[in-house]
Design brief:
Layout: E1 2-7, H1 15-29, E2 33-38, H2 50-54, H3 67-75, E3 78-85, H4 92-101, E4 108-111, E5 114-117, E6 124-131, H5 135-140, H6 144-156, E7 163-168, H7 176-191
Parallel strand pairs: 1-2, 1-3, 3-6, 6-7
Antiparallel strand pairs: 4-5
Helix pairs in contact: 1-7
Length: about 190
């Protein structure tokens, strides 16, 4: 299976980067063809410009500036998102990826006001997230990233596809042990993806 792994953390020597590397290594070990997409390293521009917004509904013109990313998404059979959660949301880099790449003609069609998902070729979805907040604080604010993955993105891929949400909460108070345990959990899940 071809798996697109999206990563959005700017620091090379971060725990987030270690999670991304572990995810890619474990998926490869499991026999998947991994397309590692590190948005910062690739210099992805997350800004939805006035032009981008003007042509947002005009496929394929809306994909011209992000054609490589669209092609990679359309070739994927699996999707894994590896990212920190900042202020109870995705980092601007990842949010911009969704705003600019998951456009009409790519992730959905829209006709007479009726939206039809078009990423049904993606058969599996997983997210590997880190939070500064505790699970309780994330719950109190509604945990938007979890809902986006387990509800919004789930609705756009193959109906009934398995979705896994792995989160290390309370990174502000983590230890070497909690980080190692979560890294091992990610390894085990990705080897069974």
């Amino acid at each position: 299976m071809r798996v697109l792994v999206l990563h959005s953390h700017p620091l090379d020597e971060s725990y987030g980067r270690a999670l991304y590397r572990q995810t890619c290594e474990s998926l490869t070990k499991a026999g998947h063809e991994v397309d590692g997409c590190n948005l910062y390293e690739e210099g992805f521009d997350p800004v939805l410009s006035a032009h981008d917004r003007t042509v947002y509904h005009d496929y394929p013109e809306n994909t011209v500036l992000v054609k490589d990313y669209v092609d990679r998404l359309q070739k994927a059979e699996g999707l894994v998102i590896v990212t920190p959660v900042w202020n109870f949301g995705f980092p601007a880099m990842l949010k911009g990826y969704f705003d600019r790449v998951w456009v009409k003609g790519v992730s959905f069609d829209l006709e007479d006001g009726k939206l039809t998902p078009t990423l049904r070729h993606i058969k599996k979805l997983a997210a590997v997230m880190t939070y500064g907040a505790t699970p309780w604080r994330a719950f109190l604010v509604g945990n938007p990233p979890k809902k986006i993955v387990t509800r919004v993105l789930r609705a756009q891929i193959k109906i009934g596809a398995p979705v896994k949400y792995l989160a290390h909460y309370d990174m502000n108070n983590c230890t070497d042990e909690t980080r190692a345990a979560f890294l091992d959990k990610v390894k085990n899940h990705m080897e069974r993806f």
